[in-house]
Amino acid sequence: MRVAPNVMVIFDVAPGGRDNYKIWEEGQVPTVIFEMTSFGTKGQDEIFKKTLYEQLGVKEYWLFDPKGEWVEQQLRGYRLRGEIYEPIQDGRSEPLELRLVVEGRLIGFYPEDTGEKLLIPNELAETLRQEVLARQQAEELVEQERQRAEHAELQIEQLKARLRSPLALAQPSLNVDPDTIQ
Predict the structure, then answer these.
(1) Is 138 helix (H, G, I), strand (E, B) or coil?
(2) Domain range for residue 111?
(3) pTM for the whole thing?
(4) Are 62 and 35 in contact (CB under 8 A)?
């Protein structure tokens, strides 16, 4: 019987895509498996696959029910302790060092060291778009400030030129030396 998990994480194998993964050829059992489950696949996922993965030595097995048809809180994990799966109570994947959080019909993955969410492609694209926009706005502000400073410098030079004019020099009551103005 062919069994293909929806998502599996396997360490210590050659990188690269595969059409299929055969444990007996690769020599490595998946470390973590995620199954998208529903009421229609409940028996297969909760009994058969759980038992199979437990016997193979898969360290963690996660069931994700995006529609919430039968898995309470949509996500249930099992961690191998010895040779038996025990329910995961803390929402953490130990091998992946991630905290898993249900976010609607998706799972959010948060590295334990940073706590920052790993972004999915559309979130990443939006974040990059916002960063580009912020950078452009900052560059515009810098340019505006440069122009303002340039204009102020021009005004100072014009004021100095007026103070050096014969009319200004004829009025000693101003008592301003234009060469000391900065």
Answers:
(1) helix
(2) 7-118
(3) 0.69
(4) yes
The per-type count for the chain, helices as H runs and strands as E runs, is 5, 8
- What's the chain's Rg over C-alpha atoms? 33
pLDDT tens for the 182 residues of the chain, in order = 678 899 999 999 988 888 889 999 999 999 999 999 999 999 999 999 999 999 999 999 999 999 999 998 999 999 999 999 999 999 999 999 999 999 999 999 999 999 999 888 787 788 788 888 888 998 899 999 999 999 999 998 888 888 777 776 666 666 666 667 66
Taking a C-beta distance cutoff of 8 angstroms, is the pair 56, 23 a contact?
yes
Give the number of other Cβ atoms within 10 Å of residue 70's Cβ. 17
- Residue 145 · residue 138 · CB < 8 Å: no
Residue 111 lies in a domain: yes
| Same domain for 79 and 12 | yes
